[in-house]
Amino acid sequence: MTDEREFTSSSFYKFLAERKLMASRCKQCGSLHLPPKPLCSDCGSNEMAWAELKGRGKLAAFTAISIGPSFMQKKGHDRNNPYTSGIVVLEEGLRISARILGGDPKEPEKIEIGSPAEIDFTDDGGESGKPILAFKV
After folding, report:
1. What is the CA radius of gyration of the chain?
2. Contact of 124 with 75, CB cutoff 8 Å
3. Model pTM?
4. What is the pLDDT of residue 124?
């Protein structure tokens, strides 16, 4: 994929609004970086390209959140209606934090670490109304 966007968090979030999970890939050594950055921390090169990730991985960690930020409370999440957030290890080896969909946050003991996770998006969150990165387990 050829894209002239800068390697910034702003560009990353614009891709998410387009429902794409993107990382920066070093043209010199091939290392992937998430969040994307303009310099490779492995070899020091500034020759980077955008790389779309598959959006598949495994759940590495999670938590059920009962008392979240005010915008999540406005969406109806509270002690009686928690939501789940976690870390997914992507097939490409990168880790990312995201909302976790599937499984019941009221019964977190039934959500299994190592479960397959696939990219999804939810409009349930965020103040901007833009899609929020999530993974379905």
Report:
1. 16
2. yes
3. 0.88
4. 61
